[in-house]
Every structure is written in C-alpha cells, then in structure tokens.
C-alpha cells in the first residue's frame, strides 16, 4: 500500500515527537508486511495487530482474505488510529495501550486469539512493560496460537523469560533487506 504524502508527514512528525514509541523511521514496507501476514488465512477466526500504526501490515493481513470483523487493531497513537479508521472502516479499531487491551480481551470478547502480529518496538520498552505485553499476549493465545514480532536486530526481542515460563518455541520466520530498516520477523508459538 502506498502511503500518501500527508501520511508520511504525519508519521515523520510523530517519529520526531515519540521516536521510541514508533521505533522505526518509516512504516513497514511490503516485503516485511507480507512475512508478518504469512500465516493468516480466511480460516483464522481472531487476529490482533498490536501497534498497527498507519496500517501497512494491516493491508497485508486483509489481503490474505481475513474477514474484517475478525481483525482487532490496537494503536496507542490517536492520529494513527484516525488514519486506521478511515482506511479500514469495518475492522475493530482500539485507540488503546496494548497492555490495557490485552488485559481486558477475554472479558470483553469471550474468546482467545489465534494470531497476534506485533509492530510494537519491544526493544525500546523497559523490561517490565516488554514482559507484560508478551505475557498477556501468550495468556490470550488459543491452543495453537502464534505471535509474530518484527524487529530490526537479528536477536529475538520477545523475552526469553516468557518463552521459558510458558514452554514456547521461537523461530526466525523471515528476513528482508528490502525494508527501511532491514527487518527480521520472529514467530513465537505454543
Ligand atoms: C514500528 S511502528 C509499526 C507501525 C505499523 N505496524 C507498521 O508496521 O508500519 C510501532 C507502532 O506501535 C505503536 N505502539 C507503541 N507502543 C504501543 C503500545 N504500548 N500500545 C499500542 N501501540 C503501541 C506506535 O504508536 C507505532 O504506531
């Protein structure tokens, strides 16, 4: 999906203001977005995208024919959430912090999540926040649930402590140099 000039300006303005929250100088580009969405299909019933930004990965997710109503987009930035609402009027969009969203997920929706796709820059968060987001994510995953995380370092940013605690596995799902910055996509699964 091409970004409009206006969206790029909004992104850059927010990147200057909140560099650690955004974590990347530009939204994710197509090759990396497609790896993030590689295991999505029309048969999946619940997908949550954490840190959906301006919807680059969202577009790849919906290209895999996932029903819009089965997709939950979580984005802490209000301006980005407004862009998401305009682009994906039929998706469930929450202008909320990932921790509060995940904490309430099962009471709110009465179900588990099959796939979580995360663009949240885990490496720039403090240890407690990073661990809380990842722990709540795992607690909300269904029996065969999977968590995909984009990062710009080879090292998996999903905390080892949570992988050990829940007996999870991890694998490098893909890497692309055709992203600014070059991106690694990790899969964490039960
Ligand atoms: C690297 S950007 C990725 C945006 C988009 N997914 C993409 O790939 O272009 C990270 C996004 O996560 C959002 N974010 C960071 N911390 C968050 C949190 N705790 N809860 C929800 N969103 C968060 C930021 O506002 C930003 O939009």
How would you summarize this macromolecular structure in one to three sentences?
By secondary structure, the protein is of the alpha/beta class.
Features of the shown structure:
Rossmann fold; alpha/beta; 7 strands; seven-stranded mixed β-sheet; 39% helix; 8 helices; binds S-adenosylmethionine
The 3D shape can be described as: globular
Ends apart, CA distance between termini:
32 Å
CATH architecture call: 3-Layer(aba) Sandwich
CATH superfamily: Vaccinia Virus protein VP39
CATH C-level name? Alpha Beta
CATH topology, what is it called? Rossmann fold
Helices and strands, in order, run as HHHEHEHEHEHEHEE
Structural class: alpha/beta
Indicate the mean pLDDT: 95
Bound molecules: S-adenosylmethionine
Task: Explain this structure.
The chain has 190 residues and is of the alpha/beta class. It has one domain: Vaccinia Virus protein VP39 (Rossmann fold), CATH 3.40.50. The protein contains 8 helices and 7 strands, in the order H-H-H-E-H-E-H-E-H-E-H-E-H-E-E. The chain has helices at 5-17, 19-22, 30-36, 56-63, 78-87, 98-109, 127-140, 160-165; strands spanning 47-50, 71-74, 92-94, 113-118, 141-151, 169-176, 183-189. The protein has a 7-stranded mixed beta sheet with strand order 3-2-1-4-5-7-6. Helix 3 packs across helix 4 and helix 6 packs parallel to helix 7 (127-140). The chain is globular and about 45 Å long. The mean pLDDT is 95. It binds S-adenosylmethionine. The site of S-adenosylmethionine has 22 residues, from helix 2 and helix 4.
């Amino acid at each position: 999906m091409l970004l409009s000039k206006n969206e790029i300006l909004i992104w850059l303005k927010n990147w200057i203001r909140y560099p650690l929250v955004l974590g990347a100088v530009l939204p994710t580009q197509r090759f990396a977005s497609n790896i993030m969405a590689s295991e999505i299909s029309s048969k999946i019933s619940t997908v949550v995208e954490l840190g959906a930004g301006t919807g680059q990965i969202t577009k790849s997710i919906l290209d895999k024919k996932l029903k819009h109503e089965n997709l939950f987009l979580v984005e802490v930035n209000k301006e980005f959430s407004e862009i998401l609402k305009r682009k994906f009027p039929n998706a469930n969009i929450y202008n909320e912090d990932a921790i509060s969203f995940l904490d309430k997920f099962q009471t709110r929706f009465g179900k588990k999540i099959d796939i979580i796709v995360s663009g949240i820059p885990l490496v720039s968060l403090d240890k407690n926040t990073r661990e809380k987001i990842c722990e709540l994510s795992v607690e909300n995953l269904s029996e065969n649930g999977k968590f995909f995380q984009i990062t710009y370092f080879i090292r998996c940013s999903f905390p080892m402590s949570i992988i050990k605690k829940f007996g999870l596995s991890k694998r490098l799902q893909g890497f692309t140099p055709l992203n600014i910055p070059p991106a690694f996509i990790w899969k964490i699964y039960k």
